[in-house]
Design goal:
Blueprint lengths: L13 H21 L7 E6 L7 H16 L3 E6 L3 H5 L3 H7 L12 E2 L6 H9 L11 H10 L8 E2 L1 H22 L3
Parallel strand pairs: 1-2, 3-4
Helix pairs in contact: 1-2, 4-6
Amino acid sequence: MEISDAVRLRDASAGTLAARAETLARKARARAVRENASLGCVFVHEDLDGADGDIYPVTRERVRAALTKALNSAHYVLSVAEVEAWLLLFPDALTKTVSSWQLPQQYRNRDTGTLIDPKKIMKNSVSSPARRYRESDAAEVVARAIALNCLDTPSGSNRSWSQLRADATECGGHHIPQMRRPS
C-alpha cells in the first residue's frame, strides 16, 4: 500500500519528527485496517537532495529511530542524492526503457551517490532529445532492472541503494516471518 503524503522528515526538529512519525504510523495502520491487511514492513522514502557525505548516516539514523519507535518494522529509505542516482546503476535497464537512452562511460562504475545532480544527468546526458527523461520514468526503469535481473549487480555503487537492499532483506527475513508465527 502507498501513502503519498509530502511530509519532510529529514529536516524536522526532534519534536516535530516524532509527531510526523506518529502521524505516518497512524495513517499506515488505518490504511491496513481499511484494506484488511497486516503491516509487515513500512518503507518511508525521501530524497536527501544532496550528494552522499557525513550528513547521510546521521540523518538516516535520526529519522530511522523515530520511525522505528512509531512502527517497529519501519525502514527509512533516504536516497542520495535522489532516486535518479539509483537509476544510473542500471545502464541496461535505461536502454531497455527507451532504446535511445545510453549511460555515458564517465558515469559507469561510479559511486552515483557522489554525483552532484543525477536528475540533470538523466535529462541531459542519458536521455535523448527524441525522448527526455521524466521523473515518472523511474518506476519503469526499476521494473526493467527487475526484469533484467540486475538489481544485485549494479554498475557502480551507491550507499543508499545498498542500504535499501539490506532493509528489504531484513524485512523479508525478519519482520514478515514474525507475522506468520502462530500467536
